[in-house]
Amino acid sequence: MIEKYDFKKEYKNLYSSRQKPILIDVPPLNYIMIDGIGKPTGENYQNAMQILYALTYTIKMSKKGDKHIKGYYEYVIPPLEGLWYLDNGKLDFNVSKDKWLWTSMIAQPDFVNEYIFNWALDECKNKKPNLDFSKARFETFAEGLCVQSMHIGSYDDELRTIAKIEKYMDENKLTNVTSNIRKHHEIYLSDPRRTSPEKLRTILRFPVEKTSF
């Protein structure tokens, strides 16, 4: 039996379970993305989840229909990811979550391109007319140099891990360049519907530059 392509195995450093900060260089990856505003428990975010997964599963399950995608191979659907920021700059955890801006996204295999995305878009519009698929887009995201660490625990307790990341940056002459351009990035390895808050596994990632003196 051929093993399914798994982003978590192919890009082990990007999905590292280490609870210590590490420096990584993130290569360009293809994503389906949706932008929005508001807390993750809000209607906008929940609708975005439905849209993202509808498109992602339509592409994955194309093998069972009439659509034959060139270069298709079996794969595991990658984890949900999110970019978080504010209009005037980097994310501030003291600001109400109702004002948080976000980009919710799921990575796609390299055989997915704009043409395949548009095909999936048309399929989903016909099957789920109640959802606004106009908000979805396909994009190659080049993140570059970053520091990340695994956070285990509640989303509301992320500052504990962020403090470790900031300490690592200081010790290694790295500058946090998080803004509304290069954003605070989270990768969700646990399903909050099935995992207790203290056991949630979330990768926290920050874009950085090497400090010059």
TrEMBL record:
Taxonomic superkingdom: Bacteria
Domain GyrI-like small molecule binding residue range list: 20-208
Pfam families, per the entry: GyrI-like
InterPro entries reported for this sequence: GyrI-like, GyrI-like_CCH_Lin2189-like, Reg_factor_effector_dom_sf
Entry protein name: GyrI-like domain-containing protein
Source organism: Terrisporobacter hibernicus
